[in-house]
Amino acid sequence: MPIDTRTKILATIGPSTSSKTMLEKLVKAGVDAFRFNFSHGTHEEHAERLKIVRDLSEKHKRHLTVIADLQGPKLRVGTFKQDKVLLKKGQHFVLDMKDIPGDETRVNLPHKEIFEVLNAGDKLLLNDGNIELQVVSNHKYVADTIVKVGGYLSAHKGVNLPNVKLPISAITDKDKKDLEFALNQGVDWVCLSFVQSVSDVRTARKLIGKRAWIISKLEKPSAIDELDDIIKESDGIMVARGDLGVECPIHTVPVLQKRIVKACRKFARPVIVATQMLESMINNPTPTRAEVSDVATAVFDGADTVMLSAETAAGSYPAEAVEMMHHIIKQVEENDTYYAQLQRDLDLSDCDDVADAITYAAAEMSQILPNIAAVVTYTSSGMTALSMARERPSAPIISITASPLVAQRLGIVWGVKSTVCDKIFKDFNKIRENALNAAKVCKIGKKGDYLVVTAGYPIGEAGITNLLHTVQI
Questions:
Q1: Distance between CA atoms of 435 and 396, rounded to whole angstroms?
Q2: Cα dist. 405→156, 401, 419, 470, 471 in Å?
Q3: Can you tell me the distance from the alpha carbon of 399 to that of 384, in angstroms, rounded to the nearest whole number?
Q4: Does 74 qualify as catalytic in the annotation?
Q5: Does 289 qualify as catalytic in the annotation?
Q6: Lower CB density within 10 Å: C or N end of the chain?
Q7: Which residue among the candidates 35, 49, 266, 269 is catalytic per the annotation?
Q8: Which of 261, 272, 290, 277 is nearest to 322 (CA)?
Q9: Does residue 109 surpass a pLDDT of 80?
Q10: Residue 351: per-residue pLDDT
Q11: Are strands 142-149 and 92-96 parallel, antiparallel or unpaired?
């Protein structure tokens, strides 16, 4: 199918989208990638759904991307004697390690790491930030707090500690089991939840190696403090606005989103904007005007991918949500200011090698020459395609690779449509032939149009981009 939008759509699979029929509807509606949320579901359920996705990829001749999203270190309170308790502003409330049901005066907090770093004056947010506690004292795994913002609290609600860096790994024992399963299933990307520092990404890299690419989810203020280092160490980034909006003042999230997206483009890393994009479509067939504007803003910002969570995982209108997101993306990308804005936002201050210069020149050619149907990149590892996508050319990007795995990984990268060659050609004269064939397969261009081609010579050697060539269809 021809590329009619550059920004990609990532849909979360769940109870509403577990069947082959529904998953195929999502593919036809415009989904480019599927997120498997390992906070829910069994390995058997994930394996069954992943097989369906791979079968649909083959059926529709689409390199659909599969992302395994690890749960990470979820911090939660324990249980209560009643269904829920009411915490009133100004009252004292105790957090402790006692494994017994709580009441209006105390509750179990089964995370000794939290007690090890809590100090008087620290703030704890419970139940998605709806309840705020301030620490009065902390001694021997018993923290006395005072309720600053009250509300109802029930069992296993989440706990957030803004501006507190916890001595815990981003990868739990559960994550390690889920990770090994996901890698054995051949997922393309792995999402790390609650990344606090660049060391978390390095730890994951040791476990994952080259078996998948890594997406770091930015949810903690400490991760923002190490933003550039985390981006450079990761293969991709997710702006996880849910917990980010709890950990950071919620009014700062739009500015942080723009900052993160811009930094990811600088370092040629794909970036996903996620959480509550079309939230009302969980229960309604149409979104709010504010949600439409939110999706449009992410596209205008230059996000590679926009994500649907509960809208497709548990919503009543999953296909309609995808269709709506597709229409919003298309509307923005057809706006006269879209590409001009993306060019103004590009930061090339750290780009000083030959490959960067080649891709920059290719993008410029696509802007100034008439009848440019596409920019074609030859890539062994995927890096040339990432570099080309950073430039956000107005022409589609066709990636030619010998690796189906690389083609699948590139499915969440802005503007890239991948084709796979059966072998890597070392004959320079094949560059033209393969580019023309790739454009034909992608149904892009007409007779007389031009293709701008970037490649490395010798063909097939990773890490080399030193050729810029034009081919007429």
A1: 13
A2: 39, 9, 11, 27, 27
A3: 9
A4: no
A5: no
A6: N
A7: 35
A8: 277
A9: yes
A10: 63
A11: antiparallel
Q: Which of 8, 106, 217, 266 is catalytic?
A: 217
The token pair that represents 443 in the structure block: 């149904």
Residue 245 CA: distances (Å) to CA of 219, 250, 257:
8, 5, 11
- Domain check: are 306 and 437 in the same one? no
Q: Which residue in the block uniquely carries the two structure tokens 């034909």?
A: 440
| Residue-averaged pLDDT of the chain | 93
Q: Same structural domain for residues 378 and 285?
A: no
- The answer as to whether 187 is a domain residue is yes
Which pTM does this prediction carry?
0.92
Residue type, 186: G
What DSSP element (H or E) covers 145? strand 142-149
Active-site residue flag, 76: yes
Domain-embedded: residue 272: yes
398: tokens are 């066709």
Q: Is 275 a catalytic residue?
A: yes
Report yes or no: 282 and 311 within 8 Å, Cβ to Cβ: yes
DSSP 322-337: HHHHHHHHHHHHTSTT
Task: Classify residue 78: in a domain, yes or no.
Answer: no
What is the C-alpha to C-alpha distance for residues 193 and 35, in angstroms, rounded to an integer?
Answer: 13
Distance of alpha carbon 163 from alpha carbon 26, whole angstroms: 39
Q: Where in the sequence is the domain holding 255, given as residue range(s)?
A: 8-71+170-334
Selected catalytic residue, list 54, 76, 205, 259: 76
Give the chain's domain count: 3
Q: Which helix (H) or strand (E) holds 184?
A: helix 173-185
Q: In the prediction, which pLDDT does 469 show?
A: 87
- Helix H or strand E encompassing 180: helix 173-185
- SS3 sequence of 212-272: CEEEEEECCHHHHHCHHHHHHHCCEEEEEHHHHHHHCCHHHHHHHHHHHHHHHHHCCCCEE
